[in-house]
Each structure stands twice: as structure tokens, then as C-alpha cells.
Specification:
Number of helices: 7
Largest sheet: 4 strands, antiparallel
Shape: globular
Strand content: 15-25%
Strand order of the largest sheet: 2-3-4-5
Distance between the termini: 74 Å
Oligomer: single chain
Number of strands: 11
Helix content: 25-40%
Radius of gyration: 23 Å
Length: 267
């Protein structure tokens, strides 16, 4: 006897097939039922673990049509054992394989010191090269208004400045307020030094220590943590712990993204 399919659903009512996407580490997807958006950090039999930009983890089942990738419904599947090209940069942006660095813009981003510049390069370097944005460090901002005037920001040469410890009532806030050009944007994070913008868990410490007033902050941190009092070696240890935006505090992430948007926005 001939067997017939029991599926009598008209073709136009059947769900359209969706692409299968390997759940490779770093792939950023959204689980539509909860709205949770994060990067894949682990994929095991039947489940995938996502981490959002604040470091929160959620585990979801690998169900058909279970996720959104850049707004499109996809089915996540376990990745093959073969190495794959990263789909995201360290900042979480979509990677552009083979993209050449853009000729440098006239605009710039200034940061306070070498450590700030190295941290920005570690996380946003790929994005900055594609956008043609150069980051320079100032070794302090005491003369920032004069530095901005000398740069001469304009419609085709915007200037963004990242300031450490930019909180109301501080010397840094008064200096920032003295910069009035509409083509210059000064933003900052609340931390005494950019070291603190790296999540303690990423460095392998419970928290950043409090250093009494009057002590050199970086030396005091090394002393409190039992590290050799070599701030250069300490910074290298901290920088080596940063692999992507997920290792940084949101107070820094948002400000750097804001500066990149500002200096790349056409008039």
C-alpha cells in the first residue's frame, strides 16, 4: 500500500527555512524570547552560553529558529572542530576580513597617557584602522584648552578627548568645561586611572584596592595586591588580561564608542 504524508499544511503556510549558523566563540546573537543579547562563549551538547557586554551569562537551548543574528532568524548549531575566522573584533563589531586601513582622518582622539592609548588599541584597534582614526596620548590634560586651540578642530577635523577621573567638582571637570568648541568633545570615565576600567575578575583579583591619599596610586595598588612595585610590569599584566570589550567596565566602553562616533560623523 502506498504511504502518503499526513502533512496537509499548504506550502504558503509552512515556515520558511532559516540558515544554520555555527555558534562560534565571539558570535553575537539575541534570544528573542528574553531579549538577551550577547556573545557566544561556550557551546555544548544542546546548549549555548551567551555573555552580554556587562559580563552577565545566560544559557539557552539550541533550538531551531531560536536566535536572531543581526535581526535575522537563524538556527544555531554546534561549530565544527576546524578553526574559523573570527566574526567579531575585540570591540564586538562585525569583523571585516581583508579590510585595508583607511587613510587617516584629520580628526583625532586624544587620551591622557600611554596606558589609555594601549588599552584603546587593544580593544578598538581594528575599528579605528577601518575608520581611519588616530589615537594620540597627551601625558596629562593640564594644558588641554591650549592643546585644543592649537589643534583647531573644525567640521572636517573633529577632536575627541578621553579624560581619567572626570567627575563633578574635580580639577579634571573644570579643565573639560573650559573646552568650548562645538567640534571638540571631552568625555571621561570616573576611575582614578584607566587600570580600574579593567574588570577585576579579568585580572584575577577580587577588586581594585583603595589607596590612601598622598600615595602614588599605581604603586599603592601593586603594594596592596602583593605585586612587585614595578608599575610597568603591573600594567603589562593588566593589559594581557584584556581580550575584548567584555573585560572592560561599561563606563569606559560607552565613552570610547561615543568618541569614535563623534570624530567619524560627517558634518
Amino acid at each position: 500500500m502506498r504511504q502518503y504524508s499526513a502533512d496537509l499544511t499548504p506550502p504558503w503556510k509552512k515556515p520558511k527555512p532559516v540558515p544554520e549558523v555555527a555558534a562560534d566563540p565571539g558570535l553575537v546573537v539575541e534570544e528573542p524570547g528574553t531579549g538577551f543579547c550577547g556573545a557566544v562563549i561556550r557551546c555544548e551538547a544542546g546548549t549555548v552560553t551567551l555573555e552580554d557586554r556587562f559580563g552577565k551569562h545566560r544559557v539557552f537551548p539550541l533550538e531551531p529558529r531560536g536566535f536572531l543574528l543581526e535581526g535575522r532568524v537563524v538556527t544555531l548549531v554546534r561549530p565544527s572542530s576546524a578553526p574559523v575566522r573570527p566574526t567579531r573584533t575585540a570591540s564586538g563589531s562585525v569583523a571585516v576580513p581583508g579590510a585595508r586601513a583607511r587613510v587617516a582622518r584629520a580628526g583625532r582622539i586624544y587620551v591622557e597617557g600611554r596606558h589609555d592609548a594601549e588599552l584603546v588599541e587593544r580593544v578598538w584597534g581594528d575599528d579605528l584602522r577601518i575608520e581611519g582614526v588616530v589615537v594620540e596620548y597627551l601625558e596629562g590634560i593640564d594644558d588641554l584648552p591650549a592643546i585644543v586651540d592649537e589643534f583647531g578642530p573644525g567640521p572636517d577635523a573633529r577632536l575627541g578627548v578621553l579624560v581619567d577621573h572626570l567627575v563633578p567638582g574635580t580639577k579634571e571637570s573644570r579643565i573639560a568645561e573650559a573646552v568650548t568648541s562645538e567640534y571638540a568633545l571631552v568625555v571621561g570615565h570616573p576611575y582614578i586611572d584607566v587600570w580600574e576600567a579593567v574588570k577585576p575578575a579579568s585580572v584575577g583579583i577580587p577588586s581594585w584596592p583603595r589607596v590612601p591619599r598622598g600615595q602614588d596610586w599605581k604603586t599603592g595598588v601593586c603594594r596592596s595586591l602583593g605585586w612587585p612595585e614595578n608599575t610597568g610590569a603591573a600594567w603589562q599584566r593588566i593589559l594581557d588580561s584584556v581580550r575584548s570589550y567584555r573585560d572592560l567596565e561599561p563606563e569606559l566602553l560607552g565613552r570610547v564608542e561615543e568618541l569614535i562616533d563623534f570624530v567619524t560623523t560627517p558634518e
